[in-house]
Design goal:
This protein is α/β, with parallel strands linked by helices and about 325 residues long. The chain has helices spanning about 1-25, 45-60, 75-80, 95-100, 150-165, 175-185, 200-210, 220-230, 265-275, 280-285, 310-320; strands at about 35-40, 65-70, 90, 110-125, 140, 170-175, 190-195, 210-215, 235, 250-260. It has two domains: about 35-115 and about 255-330, D-Maltodextrin-Binding Protein, domain 2; about 120-255, D-Maltodextrin-Binding Protein, domain 2 (3-Layer(aba) Sandwich). It comes from Desulfosarcina widdelii.
């Protein structure tokens, strides 16, 4: 009898375990998908936007955890995505054209949206004898970190094509935005470039610490740049944006892209884009430039980008009724 009871108990235990195993295998716990979002220097706009977008997505898309990664920005973000080491990120318009010309497989990438602009701030101390970019000859200039659009687009291409300047004409320093402000404070550089959306907290802080100037871009130089680079957009930074600068600054900007890998699922990209666009109050609180991530800006300049939109983004734009009208928003 004792053996029979043991056998009966064992049989019941096997039955319970079998039922439990059925429910575990039939209804598996949803796996968390981890997404790396490439941004830029902690002193720049990319970092604030990426961290804010990550928070919005984490709060509104189940089973996804997005981490904002500080990088050297545009070029590094694109290259990391192409290598499969990052899933999505921000990049300056013109970046993909440049790396495609170098032989990289940009077909692994797709557009999610076009949003904010990065604004050219060529900064000098107020007492500097540099009055225009042409005066950079023989000086020490902060040109941006390796792997960034600050370096590869503005400092290299624009200085050469707009002003005929190469890095043989001055001493370039490959430094981040925070190192540019430190260099201007310490007088270890004569001028430096910060290429991010105004108003910039790092420039505001610098302007409170020391008197600075932001160089104007002369109209004829700007016209020459625009003739060669269709994505160059004139920009006025209003007087009073930065302490001690009491006149409008005439400069220019470039639109910025939110891009991702092609192998992200349509549903995931759709939900992430929806999380950002459908929560305007939370999005706009991230940074003044976050307000530019709205549907009417999503296609601006996109005909010049060598890749198309991700199917998940297309699904969202169709849902809100603007995909078939996108040509109206190219400019």
């Amino acid at each position: 009898m004792h053996a029979k009871r043991l056998l009966l108990r064992f049989s019941k235990l096997i039955t319970v375990l079998s039922v439990a195993l059925f429910f575990v295998t039939a209804h598996p716990a949803s796996a968390i998908e981890f997404i790396s979002f490439g941004t830029g220097s902690p002193a720049g706009t990319y970092y604030f936007l990426g961290a804010g977008f990550a928070s919005l997505i984490n709060n509104n898309v189940p089973n996804v955890r997005v981490a904002a990664e500080s990088t050297a920005a545009s070029n590094e973000n694109a290259r990391l995505m192409i290598r499969g080491e990052m899933e999505m990120g921000l990049a300056c318009m013109g970046t993909l054209n440049g790396i495609k010309a170098q032989g990289l497989e940009v077909d692994k990438l797709r557009l999610v949206a076009i949003g904010h602009t990065s604004d050219v701030h060529w900064i000098v101390r107020n007492e500097s004898d540099i009055q225009t970019i042409a005066d950079f000859k023989g000086k020490v200039i902060g040109v941006g970190p390796a792997g960034s659009a600050t370096l590869n687009v503005v400092s290299k291409k624009h200085l050469q094509d707009g002003w005929g300047l190469t890095f043989d004409d001055f001493s370039p320093k490959y430094i981040s935005f925070s190192e540019v402000t430190r260099g201007l404070r310490d007088k270890t550089i004569d001028a430096g470039l910060i290429f991010a959306g105004a108003p910039l907290a790092s420039v505001m802080e610098l302007a409170r610490d020391i008197p600075i100037r932001i160089l104007d871009i002369q109209p004829d130089m700007l016209a020459g740049l625009r003739a060669k680079f269709s994505n160059v957009v004139p920009l006025t930074i209003p007087a009073g944006t930065y302490n001690g600068i009491d006149k409008d600054i005439h400069t220019y900007c470039l639109p910025q892209m939110w891009i991702c890998r092609t192998d992200l699922s349509e549903d995931l990209v759709y939900k992430m884009l929806k999380a950002v666009y459908d929560h305007p109050e939370d999005r706009d609180a991230i940074h003044p430039m976050a307000k530019m991530y709205i549907p009417k800006n999503a296609f601006r300049g996109s005909p010049g980008v060598p890749v198309g939109y991700h199917p998940g983004a297309i699904k969202y734009y169709k849902e809100i009724g603007i995909w078939d009208k996108r040509a109206e928003y190219y400019e």
